[in-house]
Structure formats: C-alpha cells, structure tokens
What does this fold into?
Amino acid sequence: MPDDTLAWMNELTADMEERRKRAQRGGGPERVKRQHDAGKLTARERLDALLDDGTFVELGAFVEPNERGLDAPGEGVVTGYGEIDGRRVFVFSQDFTVLGGSLGKMHAAKICRVMDLAARGGFPIVGLNDSAGARIQEGVDALSGYGEVFARNANYSGVVPQVSAVLGPCAGGAVYSPALTDFVLMSRSSGTMFITGPDVVKAVTKQTVSVQELGGADVHARLSGVAHLVEDDDRTVLARVRELLAYLPSSARGQPPRRTTRDPDDRRLPQLATIVHPDPQRAYPMREVIVAVVDDGRFLEIQPEFARNIVVGFAHLGGRAVGIVANDPRQLAGTLTIDASDKAARFVRTCDAFNVPVVTFVDVTGFLPGVAQEHGGIIRHGAKMLYAYAEATVPKLTVIVRKSYGGAYLAMSSRDMGADVVLAWPTAAVAVMGADGAANVLHKREIEKSSDPAATRARFVEDYRREFDHPFKAAGRGYIDDVIDPADTRAHLVRHLAMLEGKREERPFRKHGNVPL
Ligand code: HXC
It folds into this structure.
C-alpha cells in the first residue's frame, strides 16, 4: 500500500478510535462517580456483570442525538448482543450518566434496532433500565421514540422472551416499556418505578409520599404486583436475570433448555405422606411440597410477595423446565382472589407462550367470598384464570393434594379445562363445596326442626364427607386419571411429562382470543 494511503488510513482509524472512546466514556468521571456513590454500576459495568465474559458485541456506538447541541455520548444507551450461559441474548443498557438516561428519538432507535434483530433471529431481549423517561429537550420526538419501543414490546410479546431489570429511578415512559415485557426485576437499593413522582402526586392529590413509598421495589413486589423479582442491588438482580433465562427457550419456536441432574426421576418422597394434616382446618406449607418434588429442590418463585395465596414459579422435573402453580392453604385458606387470579393467569400465559409445561398443585376451597372481591371484579379477574388454562396448549399436569371445590376446581386446571393428566393424593376431595356448607344448604330445614340441631347437622356433615370427601367419586367418573401415593408424586410427574413431550394441540382459526382484562 502506498505511504500516503497508509497515512490516510491510520488517520481515519485514529479518528474512529477517538470517536469510539468518546461514545464509551458516558457522562464523564464526575457523573460516573455519582452513579457509583449511589451504589449503582455504570451501563457498561452492568453488561459485564450480566453477560458471559468477553461475549458483548456493541452495535450503534456512534449514534448521535437528533437535537443539535445535546452532548449525549452513545446517545445514553449501550446496545448490542452477547451470551448468557452460552446462549445469545440481545441487550440494551441505559446510561444514567448521560442526560439521566432520558430517551430521545435516536436513543429509542438504538433500542428498537436490537429488538428487531432479536425478534428476527429468535433471541431474548434483556433491557437494563435506568432512565428519567422522555427526554424533555426533544419534545414530541421523545414521545414518538417511546411509541416505537412500546409497539415492539407488544408486537414481539410471545415471540421472544423480554426481560426488564429496573436499576434506577424509572419514571414516565421508562416504566411502561418494562411493564409491557414478560418479567420485571427490580433492585431494592436503586430501582423505583412510577408514572409521576412524589412532587406531582403532592400537587395533584395533596398526599405526601416518599419515592420509596410511592414506587420502591418492595411496594411493587408486595402491593402492585409490577415487580416479578426483587434483589438487593445491581449484581444480584443481574444474576437473577441469568437464572431466569435458564428456564426459557430463546424464542417461541424453541424448547426450554434441559438441565442435567443427578436427582433420580423416581426419588420417593415419604415425607409428603404426612405433610397434609388430617384436620382440614390445619394448613401446611405447599412450598415444601413443591421443593420436595422438583429436581434438586430448586424452585425459582416468581412474585413471591404478591398475592401469597397462590404460588407460581419455575423448576425442573427430570431435567425438563416446568412452570408450577399451587394454592397456599396458609394464606386466606388458599382461596382464589382478584390478585391471585391475575398472578396465576399471567404466569400460565407466559409458560404457554414459551413452551414451558404447567404443573398445578391444588388445595382450594373456592374463590374468596366478600363484597370487596365482588365489587373489585373477582368475576372478571377469575375469568382470566379459566381462560389462561383453557387456552394453554403446553402439557398440563394437575395434582389434587386436598380440597378442590366449586369454580376453583375448574380454575385450577381440571380435566374439563384441558388438563392432560390429573393425579390425586388419597387426601383429595372434589366437590361443589365443603361438607359444612353443603349440609347447611341441603338440610337447613331438618337441622332447624331437629330437637338437637348440632347433632343432626354433624350427622349430615358426616354423611356428606363419606360421599364426597375423597378422590374416588371424581376418579370413578374419569375426572382423575390416577390416585397415587404422595411419596411417588415426583416419579409420576416425570413420567407423564416425558409422555407429553410431543404434545401438539390445534385451535380453531381466529385473529386472536379476547382474554378478559
Ligand atoms: C432530559 C433529564 C431528564 C429528562 C433528568 N434529566 N430528567 N434530561 N430529560 N426527562 C437530567 C438532569 O437534568 C440531570 O442532568 C441528569 O438527568 C440527572 O438528573 P437528576 O435530577 O440530577 O438525578 P436524580 O436526582 O437522581 O433524579 C432522577 C429523577 C429526576 C427522579 C429521574 O431527574 C426526575 O424526576 N426527572 C424527570 C422525570 C420525568 O418527569 N420524566 C418525563 C416523564 S414523561 P445533569 O446534566 O445535571 O447530569 C414521559 C412521557 C412518556 O416519560 C409517557 C409514555 C406513556
């Protein structure tokens, strides 16, 4: 190559490196220090913590803001792809040191670019959110940028897994993109989410509220249900994102990866035979049943603090990923409530979208009666659960542990709603309602007229129990496939899961279903 060409090329390369360095420096040392002082990692440090070492490939480092005069290195967001446990993921990581990670038109364009590539290639999208929302200086262009991101969140929903980590003070549009994704993970120390901050709340409602009280991670974990998982800081949140993705396929076209285990498929569980107390009023820890049954006792519970009367989460059985839904008889007697229905329905739909079979453990007396639940729309919300189970085409396995009454029997994955295999423990009872309620309804007059109402009532309760308080009536009618020794629950589930591996179920043509929202 001639000398002058070489010199020219060296000059161009030096200029390119200079521009790259500028793009990568973020908002400068002072703002980086502020980020670290707040206990947060920078956008790039977060990607290092999230991805397998040395796998990050950056795209769009030279993108500049639309608005002249704005100094926004890298446009305030780092985008590209890398690997988690050797599997490709697309990522964006907002840089709070650059204009508060605010979203302008080109910032949005960078995010949209990786979302498009992820959807086309069939790979998950992980967004690390740390943003003050729409960039004020860009006006409607910033709003338009959000529109483009939201549209992709919706259109790629169910196509590839979308996971959001909320690692900073996310406001306005910065909360709706995570809300449109499959999972929201929050950092307790730095993540907050609200539509409008405490100042606006005070101006409009006169209420004084702190940032944490309004939109801290614990609020979203316990009360609003917005957060699926909460961890203490950036690193622990990012470790959870890695863990979560191990249960999901890269796209709806794939299967979740198998996990190798030494846990024997037919491991017996003698402890389960005694876990359910003979007194139906005595509750027991359903989580212990789940942990005993699944591979290596590893259960990743999702939304553990929200609607605690229902338990949902991921595990493996014989190496296959499964989603688990279970009543918790220790909370509100395991009844189904508005929030529990939303939580379970959403989880079942997520599993179905990504080919994760659903295993349901049942101990439920019904939907929670009461004015607050009725007026809050338990009919509308409970319908989501019925819809989600009926709609799901993934393998569905049900284990009736104890009570399974009324509408909740149907809502917890019954045979009629499409369960592939229904198992029951000998302690199971399937009926329209419990014995006390049934005796009162059916024999009210006899009880009232009797010289000894308490004894008469007890006799009717006993009669009812003899008839319905066992699984054999339902098994006799074919609603239960097998009544099993609780100690063999794991062996049965692993075997049936393997049998259902090739399951295909077609639905009639439609544009899309109309889930009750
Ligand atoms: C541009 C912004 C910005 C914004 C903050 N900055 N918000 N720049 N657009 N929206 C800049 C600040 O000027 C500052 O720049 C830097 O980001 C850091 O901000 P600080 O306020 O110093 O940080 P902190 O004290 O940590 O407070 C963070 C914050 C606060 C809570 C997020 O900045 C805030 O309330 N911002 C406004 C949030 C908001 O209302 N956004 C618009 C939402 S409306 P320097 O140069 O000093 O570092 C929206 C519409 C979409 O998003 C709706 C779709 C449904």
Observations:
- Residues 31, 99-100, 102, 132-136, 143, 146, 169, 171-173, 176, 197 surround hexanoyl-coenzyme A (CB under 6 Å).
- The mean pLDDT is 94.
- The two ends are 67 Å apart (CA to CA).
